[in-house]
């Protein structure tokens, strides 16, 4: 609905209330007096009806402004009865928006439609993630992929799994410290490309469930002391055993 239609709808709503009063034989002044007594006194609706000799008083009462604007059409929101006021249940005379029940105004319908579309998209993304995750979580795929790993990639992935399994609040810094690397970025990106680490749709990274720590075993490398290294240089007369070159 355009803004002009909202204006017309509000005018029609007010006109209908005045028409109801006219049909009950009330003048405009009497109708305004009834509305004033209804909203500003302790008189019961029945006592006001009896005083003016009418029935169904609510059809003749002008709404009470709630000092708030409609979120969709910016019209002043109103209370249509004392009960609504006590429960803070407001209505818009323009677009018919309300904050109680199942509102069928255009704005709420559109908002619900957007929520449904968002929820459907989230379900689709989650389903697609689960399908691809299950597809790659096989021992055959993981074993074949790990054969192409460098030593440091194996160490990093093993550190990731061990920290995730043993820490209640794992951090990249903790993983990097354990793996002996400065940054996780090159490793995590590569492992995600290989489908061994997965970015979950709602956040967080998990590892391929088919991976075992045994697959990531890395043979230890014996460290060579400086004195032994110097002895080797002395033995070979500081000459490269591959190309025969010597330092200047």
Q: Bin the strand percentage.
A: 5-15%
The main sheet comes to: 3 strands, antiparallel
> Helix tally?
10
Shape: rod-shaped
Rg, rounded, reads 38 Å
Tally the structural domains: 2
Instruction: Identify low-pLDDT runs.
Output: none
Order of helices and strands: HHHEEHEHHHHHEEH
- Based on secondary structure, the structural category is mainly alpha
Structural write-up:
The protein has 248 residues and is mainly α. The protein folds into 2 domains: 3-102, no CATH class; 137-216, Winged helix-like DNA-binding domain superfamily/Winged helix DNA-binding domain (Arc Repressor Mutant, subunit A, Orthogonal Bundle). Helices cover 52% and strands 7% of the residues. The chain contains 10 helices and 5 strands; from the N terminus they run αααββαβαααααββα. The protein has helices spanning 3-23, 28-40, 45-52, 82-86, 106-136, 139-146, 151-166, 172-179, 185-193, 226-235; strands at 64-69, 76-79, 91-92, 197-199, 205-207. The strands form 2 sheets. It has a 3-stranded antiparallel beta sheet. A two-stranded antiparallel sheet has the order 4-5. A hairpin with a 6-residue loop joins strand 1 (64-69) and strand 2. Helix 7 crosses helix 8. The longest helix has 31 residues, at 106-136. It is rod-shaped and about 120 Å long.
Layout of SSEs?
Elements: H1 3-23, H2 28-40, H3 45-52, E1 64-69, E2 76-79, H4 82-86, E3 91-92, H5 106-136, H6 139-146, H7 151-166, H8 172-179, H9 185-193, E4 197-199, E5 205-207, H10 226-235
Antiparallel strand pairs: 1-2, 2-3, 4-5
List keywords for this structure.
248 residues, mainly alpha, Arc Repressor Mutant, subunit A, three-stranded antiparallel beta sheet, two-stranded antiparallel sheet, 5 strands
